[in-house]
Queue: 4 jobs
Job 1
Amino acid sequence: VKMAAAASDLLTGWCLFGLALLAILVFCWVYVRKYQSRRESEVISTITAIFALAVALISSALLPVDIFLVSYMKNQNGTFKDWADANVSRQIEDTVLYGYYTLYSIILFCVFLWIPFVYFYYEEKEEDDGNTCSQVKTALKYTLGFVTVCAVLLLIGAFVPLNIPNKKNSTEWEKVKLLFEEFGSSHGLTALSFSISSLTVIGMLAAITYTAYGMSALPLNLIKGTTSAAYERLENTEDIEEVEQHLLRIKSKCRDGRPLSSRDRRTVQQLEERLRTLRRRERHLESIEKSWWTKFCEAIRPLKIVWGVFFIIVALLFTVSLFLSNLDKALHSAGFDSGFIILGTNLTNPLNMLLPVLQTVFPLDYILITTIVMYFIFTSMAGIRNMGIWFFWIRLYKIRRGKTRPQALLFLCMILLLIVLHTSYMIYSLAPQYVMYGSQKYLVQVRFNTFLKKNKSKLTFLPFVFLSDQCIVTRTYLFLHKFWFFSAAYYFGNWAFIAVFLIGLIVSCCKGKKSVIEGEVDEDDSDMSDDELPVYYR
């Protein structure tokens, strides 16, 4: 009966995971369709963006399932349940591990092959509308560079030694043989972990750039609101009249037949471009002022303020939890050589206390983790939309609702994919005990940090084997902490994340209200872009 009940609970967990998959697919479709250009939309780029974003979200959705399964194998007193023998627990661990293998392999395929190929294909398509075969060849040529980088990362991860032999008289052949033995024993786990960790570091940089700023910009924009469409339209009308008068003054100089100077001609050209932009703004403002969506947004303005206050409280809670977690590592970890790893908590962390409690009532922790991931997605999108996509000091693309080009959409989804990859480590930083062991309890309490410091020279950066008889570690932890130098990079990245968030908070507080058509009208837009107004603004 107990085994049947356990099987029923596990089946329920997997059913909820299936529902989460369906919800993720629907969300990705709506999300991509919302931002893609109506005039330049392409089927392949749309499918690629939806698929890449869905895979990233599914990999993050597997995290609470992994934690639930390892926690469900043990009773509250620390003993294993009757059905959770060695074979059953091993089968469950292998199932989750193979799930990560599959998802992370697909992520590597998307990042290093599929997305680059589609991107370069459409870049060539814009430059050369002729032969499709030549476009494919050119795209494959550029994509080969990404494939080479992926192969190098896999080779480095496969043969980097985690256990260095202490024998001074060992030959080079023995060292090479050891590398191949390690590769065979890990079944490719080390190679995949190294590649994914490399992408996670890039995702960390994207999170520092976009998510940290978006966490401050999104709630404050909700609280401040936007300027009135009627007020902006009045100011815009005054600007149109001023530009028209300036144009008349310059053109009056050539009434007697004298040609305009080169300086005046340049000024006239600039003023005419400015006038076209102002008239496009006039059309957009007029549509927005009369739309039912604007009236609806004005009606729910108090609700937006409540959401803004809630989001800023959540952002401050994340920041405080991240600060306390990093401070705990700085004061009580085994040091830089172990990647600032710490088993057990010495400083109270709100989220680290909350998640193990919610984990005992499935699926409350699943809902909270999903909320955290979606929060990171929305704040990242807010940061990307406010800043655009940059390559150092060069602005590559703008992200605008209903006007995003296919190439920008692919860039957007790749950035979000990398940020979601980093989200797993962010959750570990916020709640390390939860991510490692869930709600498992031990029969014997051990001073983890004392053990680490005494055996620091013997660490292979897998300290959980010391407690292999007492607990089951999540498969996520295997991928997150295979290499100490990546964890050290994440540690310093968390400090940078906190600093950028505080700077973004100050900047967002000092900025005024956003325009009601912020980012909708730019000087480089064509007049045809007016046809791309969202349906609810018409």
Job 2
Amino acid sequence: FIIHNKDTFFNNATRSRIVHHILQRVKYEEGKNKIGLNRLLSNGSYEAAFPLHEGSYRSKNSIKTHGAENHRHLLYECWASWGVWYKYQPLDLVRRYFGEKIGLYFAWLGWYTGMLFPAAFIGLFVFLYGVTTLNHCQVSKEVCQATDIIMCPICDKYCPFMRLSDSCIYAKVTHLFDNGATVFFAVFMAVWATVFLEFWKRRRAVIAYDWDLIDWEEEEEEIRPQFEAKYSKKERMNPISGKPEPYQAFADKCSRLIVSASGIFFMICVVIAAVFGIVIYRVVTVSTFAAFKWALIRNNSQVATTGTAVCINFCIIMLLNVLYEKVALFLTNLEQPRTESEWENSFTLKMFLFQFVNLNSSTFYIAFFLGRNLSSYPSSESWIMKYCHPSGCLIDLCMQMGIIMVLKQTWNNFMELGYPLIQNWWTRRKLRQEYGTQGKTSFPQWEKDYNLQPMNAYGLFDEYLEMILQFGFTTIFVAAFPLAPLLALLNNIIEIRLDAYKFVTQWRRPLASRAKDIGIWYGILEGIGILSVITNAFVIAVTSDFIPRLVYAYKYGPCAGQGEAGQKCMVGYVNASLSVFLVSDFENRSEPTSNGSEFSGSPLKYCRYRDYRDPPHSPVPYGYTLQFWHVLAARLAFIIVFEHLVFCIKHLISYLIPDLPKDLRDRMRREKYLIQEMMYEAELERLQKERKERKKNGKSYHNEWP
């Protein structure tokens, strides 16, 4: 290294890391394990240990005229201030102040946010396409004009008969999300997820090169004190260091993993039980709302049921998240991981699995199980479980995703910024009461930082987890909610500045650490990308009416056999998608209190319901029609073709996009070439110098090179 100034050669983050490295290994007392700062923190000798911020982040003077007073002030003005939300992040400054690991997080978050722009634009286009084609949609027209079609009640007893035209609004809203552009958007998002990950690898390689992380390897990690205390009696030789270290037997490790896996399975069962509770709530509440005295709620009982169920589900999700954190912590400690990185990876995987299942289980139920019972028609026992609106179940899925996504992001943003702000305000208030305003300003920097909030115990885990779950919402069910990327984009624009403000002003300065990539999160992102292809295929084939409409247009509609599928080919689709039910076939316990005389002046004999079944007077009453089997076969064929096509495109893109940009590869090869040349020249110079010295001393050698 060519060092011109020893005081500025290492940046502040690197100096903090060096000091921490020394403090972790210094011996503070005689004894085998009396080493390191962490042990002093764990036994209560010290309350906290943290690097200091470089002074205040505010200044009386303008940064434009007087410059920045310190790096913290510069970061606040150029990065954490809300007025610079539209500017690129100064990643080199972030890395210099907070270290490479936090710098990589913000680099990934900025890259993810930037990649959301095309996804949000296409999703908004799909939504606007639905808006512009709304008046030309034949299906919505037929639903709105079907004043003579009486639908069967959607629940037992208290739900009334209703005209199909009463669901006109819901049919139009469904068309906004379920239209001809939905399939294209699902394919686009599957490809987008792959492009995002592949180009992130290229971006990460450039950052790693610029930050001198290409050849950096993590040093051999120290054993966790908990592992050392548990298995100190049994030791074996470390093949790398050559020193004896505690050893965990294979049988002990397997037994602990089995217990941990059983705990994970049990908690997933708790989630399923919570979802089943929401299902029971829906069944009971839809009847209650249908008999409500307020006409507004009575006439919109389905929407009221779905809306309240989603809100209750959100509250359950937030409560279970608190429980899951404690369970994941207990199970991870039970496994006794050897090093801190193993502990972190194990805890991350459990927390992601718990929260992903917790957040998406009810969404999976609505998408793939609500209203899909092969033995369900109005008189069957399972009819109470099949109460999708006459316009379909997609509107329930859209409400579920929209409400959960908005509430979750709002709550996370409040907890990330609002909670530290309130705690710091309360701390400052107590200090003003105790020392007065003048006394508080005279505090040394370490005491000012001590009064800030510490970074959470799991480091960047919460930040990554929030974004990864959002990525799942943005990709997994995007075919049912094309506006999800737009909501994610708007949230992330706020999230970047919110996290920056939190790191610079509200938290103690975290210890700088190095990292080459985002770790286990990249594998989780790849898994979500694969899952999104499968779920979107099923959403289009099973949840939406895309396949039934396609089958009707090509096989049963006015254009059958002509190879056309325009709006004119959809004439009569609504009537063909509804089956006839004999009102007298209702069972006693599910028979509605109303006889439907308000529609025609006499009791109804027949009502309609969404299914492909034979009429009640056919040889096999309520048996499946041929159209049902055609639709089912088309759905299965679409799932297979869609998945194979998209996976082929994903693998092709992954193959075609190299992990390293060409210019970076050339720079690395050029650097390697120059290093080799310098080594050759240095060696040649050394040999020539030795030759001259030998000649001076009168020594000669035959066949001497060069």
Job 3
Amino acid sequence: PQRIYYLSLEFYMGRTLQNTMVNLGLQNACDEAIYQLGLDLEELEEIEEDAGLGNGGLGRLAACFLDSMATLGLAAYGYGIRYEFGIFNQRIVDGWQVEEADDWLRYGNPWEKARPEYMLPVHFYGRVDHTPEGVKWIDTQVVLAMPYDTPVPGYKNNTVNTMRLWSAKAPNDFNLQEFNMGDYIEAVLDRNLAENISRVLYPNDNFFEGKELRLKQEYFVVAATLQDIIRRFKSSKFGCRDPVRTCFETFPDKVAIQLNDTHPALSIPELMRILVDVEKVDWDKAWEITKRTCAYTNHTVLPEALERWPVSMFEKLLPRHLEIIYALNQMHLDRVAALYPGDIDRLRRMSVIEEGDCKRINMAHLCVIGSHTVNGVARIHSDIVKNSVFKDFYELEPEKFQNKTNGITPRRWLLLCNPGLADIIAEKIGEGFITDLSQLKKLLDFIDNETFIRDVAKVKQENKLKFAAYLEEQYKVKINPMSMFDVQVKRIHEYKRQLLNCLHAITLYNRIRCNPSKSFVPRTIMIGGKAAPGYHMAKMIIKLITSIGEVINNDPYVGDKLKVIFLENYRVSLAEKVIPAADLSQQISTAGTEASGTGNMKFMVNGALTIGTMDGANVEMAEEAGEENLFIFGMQVEDVEALDRKGYNAQEYYEGLPELRQAVDQISSGFFSPRDPGCFRDIVNMLMNHDRFKVFADYEAYIKCQGQVDQLFMDPREWTRKVIRNIACSGKFSSDRTITEYAREIWGVEPSATAIPPPNLPRN
């Protein structure tokens, strides 16, 4: 069968024990066995470290995709880097984020198996020699790539795929050739330089930092993986007469490479280098093979996130790849020039090489010209990709562009994290939904069933009590489990607008202070997420959230009506606890900035209602469930564009909305930072003078919409009916559906629902 290679610099796997038991159908058996040993399985599960080899959405998507590819019986491999240190652990000290190293391998990793027999060399630096026999890349430095395999079990189908992560090893003669008589000790210590490649995950989400070590990581995973792919292609006979396959004609029919964002974009020039320089394939043939093999998923439209590497860095680190990129770009521009004679500006816009004070390689452009398919991750995002980000490329090859709306695996994000809900669903509609989430539609028949309404509300209340107990045990914070759990958990970023949430919290607080005797719908506002260590504004936002909590949570006038909690060290294992307990899910990015979002889907399937803008997959969630069953507010993409043309003026909103002005004045006057009154001047200055994400423009609509949330929450039966309708309409957002679409429309393979026979039975 055709093999699928999913290349990603991030795999945000979380814990593995419970997921493995669920997918193998062993959870009850293990539970019973452990219980008979006088142990508690849940206590055991809490000991496992998260495999935090990702930042957020992109890395977690890769993990969900691995689960779905195995469950759908695809011959798929995940390839990435075995970072010694994953995403940092977050501590909050005096209200500020403090990072500590995530030494997740300290006690070993029982799920991985080192494969030294498949170790491969990766080359860096050196120079290019053009000889009559062909091009040679010589005088390189070698780093070895050691593979570690982690099994990826499908759900009860006896399929186990592999995630192969590469670790960097110095060769034994590393730096000893040069030293010869010199300092042997120094040379051995320098092995660290090579092995640093797989040391640590870069902790940036949606932000490009052009560091040489990061470029090394990107080439490292690509070079090792492509050697592996080609070794496997050559050794598989596929009904081929040759003892060793030398003809690459059929390569694209046997191999599909999916690039998770531009991070593995070097796959394109590296495959060209192997085909042309090593395997002596004709250039044009090699280019056809490369394009038919690779496909590219775009994950963001934020300009600061796009990878643009300095040519000077390539020249030094990967000189042959630079030559290949120049040649590919020339071919591409020749084609564009022939189709649009004299349109010099179009050539400039479409070039892979950006001219300027510092010449740069635009990796997204490289991916578009080197792939047969480019996809966005939600319908609205794919439209923006076609109509703005890659508009010129879309005009050239419209057939290349597709949409593949993201999804989440219902195994981890329903069965594993919310067994109570999964049970009452299975009671009503059977277990088929676990591998075919569209079957949740059958719950629409029970929307007025009083028993089911009561059961759904009961499960949510139990989840809330359990999470409240966890918060009290871990962080010594007491919360009111009868309050509305209002949750925003995601990476801290200006575009995600945690500041809008803050302004609502302050507004609620002011209303309570103003009218202490009035009855309020009690809320616990929970905000969680990590800030990139170098992202000053994001760190200030965390300090603001903790400072607001400090004031509100200690004000006797407020009591149980309002609490603001910052959830420390948000990660996969914490998401599995908080999401099933949430009543309200906040998805409030400025329209046109969140490519898809996947947390939004997890909350929907777990029985929270969504307050959100028409952005990312929220649009399709509203379409599936009916807009009246979500709390949709604020500007749409068209409104944002119109406001950009007119010019966004924060001052107008500040002066026109008294409650907004009061909140902003409190932040700037030091009401929330009495020890340091000027603490938040950077935030206020940004909001008033250069807010790219137009927080104030959506404030009024947001506050009004939150009022409607309160109204509905006071009618528990109606609230729960909306919850059931949301769950029933969440089936589209399974990663099984997403992967089925990738398989059929991009990779050209058919997923199979049938389990293969278990290992104790003969096949066929």
Job 4
Amino acid sequence: GLGRLAACFLDSMATLNLPAWGYGLRYRYGLFKQRIAKEGQEEIAEDWLEKFSPWEIVRHDVVYPVRFFGHVEILPDGRRKSAGGEVLNALAYDVPIPGYKTKNAISLRLWDAKASAEDFNLFQFNDGQYESAAQLHSRAQQICAVLYPGDATEEGKLLRLKQQFFLCSASLQDIIFRFKERKADRVSGKWSEFPSKVAVQMNDTHPTLAIPELMRLLMDEEGLGWDEAWDVTNKTVAYTNHTVLPEALEKWSQSVMRKLLPRQMEIIEEIDKRFREMVISTRKDMEGKLDSMSVLDNSPQKPVVRMANLCVVSAHTVNGVAELHSNILKEELFADYVSIWPKKFQNKTNGITPRRWLRFCNPELSEIVTKWLKTDQWTSNLDLLTGLRKFADDEKLHAEWAAAKLASKKRLAKHVLDATGVTIDPTSLFDIQIKRIHEYKRQLMNILGAVYRYKKLKEMSAEEKQKVTPRTVMVGGKAFATYTNAKRIVKLVNDVGAVVNNDPDVNKYLKVVFIPNYNVSVAEVLIPGSELSQHISTAGMEASGTSNMKFSLNGCVIIGTLDGANVEIREEVGEDNFFLFGAKADQVAGLRKDRENGLFKPDPRFEEAKQYIRSGTFGTYDYTPLLDSLEGNSGFGRGDYFLVGYDFPSYIDAQARVDEAYKDKKRWIKMSILNTAGSGKFSSDRTIDQYAKEIWGITANPVP
């Protein structure tokens, strides 16, 4: 998710001629390639680098040392310095990001981890001790092997922390080197200029270690005192929060941090100490809140460093990624900090690049938009799409729009046949949910709805079936390798599809398909061909979502909850052109409380759908542990935390409204046109322009 967003942001930064670039790690095997087998999802290593990547340029001259473990040395002048441990090298690979219709190209600089020749023990190797001779080389390879390595083990946690620090340290050393290179005549005392030349945006909590590492580089390497280094760091660093899910707000064990990064841990402890002192001396009224606000949680059972708190305490600006999400940050998650720093918090609603997500992926619709707007300027000024509104009832446009959609649906049907062997009917309603598989995104509600639809179809007479809106339900997304319930959901979708698609009584009216190995290339085929798109997360849990914007831009109608950017999409496209259902964010806590108190009464349709799965209709696999997450009133993995049961009846009712609306082709096409026409706000150009003006303080710098 963060990667797809970052790709759009880089495209916009280049197109807007901004002096900005991205830093990341050069993962050899990516996340994973998803294969669907009898047992469900299988993960295999992604081979994208095996064939060599033509876009990257290796920079053998750009190498920085990154130190892990070791100890802190105190120098004769009292300064402190990291020493010992193991030192790996970060080698830069640059991926150019060209702007659209501009001479500007920016860079995505990706770091690879290497050990040096000195770290290769020739004596041991010649003695036949091959593994131990190249120990550091093999540890270096682990760092950039896999994105999000499993962190259930202590080794996995340590590797993730190593990855995070490796990215932060290499990137900051590079930034400081460039700053000094451009200021070759720099004398001590000019570091106060650094924040006017450099802005660092931390994309979620993963790069939080940039804070203590920048402090270390400024104090230990450049000789600044604490106050000056803190002033520079605070004015340089800003933080984007991307989630309110507690498990995603990183907390690292203090002992692991102290062992891996002893000097950085000292700095974190000092930041925490000074923050506490500041609150006690300036805000006596907040003293009772300090335990939850501090950077260090010193609970004796499990002392941790709270990365989100470190970000909020240290950054000059904190932003959420949709209006609803930013309000939740201010009113709930970070409410206590708001009373100390009311001006620190902003909203930057996410966006997507119209170049990739309409112009490139949907050529037929793009040509129609250009023809009716009499300009192709919409590709870099997406607000022009509102010009389509005045043609929303035009029959000529309707005919062209429908033809473009059919062409995209046929292309999608071919992809489904090639990828799954299932034949789908391009005249049926294409209903798609593609996103990471997660319980809060509620793919389980989608498949329960499909199961309920299948059961009702089985009970109908031939005449009744004639009145049904034929539908193809498609679900795609990767489940994290160690996330058991998510993997059960993938298996359930596949099992339901295997039965439904081979049932001659029903398969003219319903098909259920799991699209394997969801990624950007797959999305470029699915999104243009989609007619209904499901964005059905529990309200208050999806920070923004961006696939909702991609679907809407391509004239797809959304069925969704008032969550993330859905709220703003519905405002922009019009309430009549969005199928709304479900609890609102401010009701969720109360509904969970009601559930705990035994007040929830399930809808009979919900019980019917669950029972149909339990009956073995879809095979012998035991779905009890998955369905049990929806049962009971409380307890770990129980009590329907994501409110599937509560929202199910209004979801089924909304789907019935979809079926009715789709029968009226004229009404449906008008809704489709108005979705595209209302998508201007969701260009990443608008998002990045706001970051540039309101957080980074930078202006366009076009290549002459």
